[in-house]
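Justification of computing resources. Each target in the renewal requires a structure prediction run like the one illustrated here; the chain below, 195 residues long, is used simply to show the kind of job we budget for.
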Amino acid sequence: MQEHLNDEFVKRAQKEGYRARAAYKLTEIDDKDKLIKPGMTIVDLGSTPGSWCQVAVQRLKGQGKIIALDILDMHPIAGVDFIQGDFREEAVLKQLEAKLNNKPVDLVIADMAPNISGISDVDQAGAMYLTELALAFSQQWLKPNGNFLVKVFIGAGFDYMVKTMRLQFDKVVTRKPKASRDRSSEVYLLGLGKK
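Resulting structure tokens:
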């Protein structure tokens, strides 16, 4: 707890009005890779508490659309259409697809993680399952040349995910933003240019 309270990104988030330190992960990646542009349609999977949505709203500059989804409730953000539900459930996926109104999206961002059990093999499998679902959604809904940013944990299934994404995107890169704690095995895979 003390480490969290003393964390430079936690302090910055509080000062700058972001809901979580995760805002700086997306900010750093977007500064480098220029993913978010005005006029885009963006889907944010695993959006709560909403810091990635806050960053996306700022960078869309009032032009574009964000549809966010999370199993947990999220306080409203102007410019974000939020669905509360479990992404693993078909009915929730159908709700998300209905909001898209048969229009493909420019960018899918996914900062999801399963509830942690403490059993690393189980947790890794749960995290990879969410990543696979997000990738399948992206494959179906991204425009050609659209981009996909997803949190993954290095461990079982990681190399397979990289290989799978390479088949579906022109370029796949790994990002480890400064706001991602050093001891964490989380990294972000970025699929650029959906084939």
